[in-house]
Amino acid sequence: MNYQDFQQTIDISKDHLYREIYLANRDQIQVKKEKTVIRNLSRIFNAALKISNEKGFQAMSMRDFSKETGLSMGALYSYFASKDELLDMLLRQGRQLVMRILRQHIQPIGDPVVKLETAIRIHIYLSEALQPWFYFSFMEAKNMSPSEKEKTVASELYTDQIFADILLEGQAAGQFTPRDPQQSAGGIKALLQDWYVKRWKYAKRKTGVDQYADFIVEFVMAYHRTPST
Amino acid sequence: MNYQDFQQTIDISKDHLYREIYLANRDQIQVKKEKTVIRNLSRIFNAALKISNEKGFQAMSMRDFSKETGLSMGALYSYFASKDELLDMLLRQGRQLVMRILRQHIQPIGDPVVKLETAIRIHIYLSEALQPWFYFSFMEAKNMSPSEKEKTVASELYTDQIFADILLEGQAAGQFTPRDPQQSAGGIKALLQDWYVKRWKYAKRKTGVDQYADFIVEFVMAYHRTPST
DNA sequence: GTCTATATACGGATAGAC
DNA sequence: GTCTATCCGTATATAGAC
Known about the structure:
By secondary structure, chain A is an all-alpha fold.
């Protein structure tokens, strides 16, 4: 699989995304016309990610935000109860989408070597497709409400565990070198995160997403398919 | 070298650190008694790093800050002209210290294989010794003044280049597998950064700094001292 | 050198008109 | 559904007493 193949599978999901978000947050949202809500939620999410990724969520004033969305401050507050709740909504909905896509792509695969490569590629491709959200979630962890913070931590540990499990399985089958799976999983995650955290660097060097994925796969495989020292 | 060896070399530098900072910022600091300045600068730096690493530099109010330092707001403003200048001073002084120690330890080494291992270990040990500053610098990059931001980016690229140069040298000598040195250097940096960015995770797993350094060295060496596929 | 008290601006949030 | 006008708290920064 390469990035283009992946993109096609995710575009379908994105079509229904804002409708889902609307349905999941019906109680909070005071506006009732579905079409309006979907249009404005899309503006709200995009604007929040854009401004936050430039200067941070806290530094984004509601006046900045109002300007970027094209909605008045009064109108905005009929979509969420407070700025903090907007933050929680963004994180919650993004996390759900990410988790769903990850599971969809990784679960069906049997062979550990193929599964490891697929898990790496899907992570990178997904963080490319949803780069603003990934960066946002990474940088704003500090500002989250305790309950959201907890879920973000849990989600980080969960994806670590996906990799650790694949490695364990492959070691049991004799396909991978014996290494500490937890430690390896952490290392892999660090390499995956660099793609969306240091985007400016890779843009500057004109490194493409497929090129980066190839590199990480080789790097990781060299450690896990070589006799240990 | 292990972390304990490293610590002894850095403690000496730390003794003179605040005196240096005082001398470098004499023009800005209105207080003239050296002993007082050094004592208060130490409080100021530690408090700023502590609060910022909990909730971010912007979210740290001058009232919080005053409480943590034990100095009144009026007194604080005789050590820096504005909150933004405090941020710049913190970053500038930290960067200088980090660069100096890196160069000291890495430059004298000849053999590329030893040099690569040493560069990795020194980076990790240094980020352990100065963890609050490293985390701070990483997370606050967004809020920096344009000139500071530029210097932080330059510093990131500079340390990338240190690794790339070692790899190139080793490849020329036939000691390393041919790989893209820029790409490898970026990957190594990502692994090094995880140690101070995800400290909570390693603390939870009780992974020690020497254990982490051993892991990264093995991981990196597996990729660079194996026949390429 | 350090404090307390305060000037001044900007933040999030809401009420009520349209 | 959306807008404008405004409330009120809290932010940074400073002036002047000690």
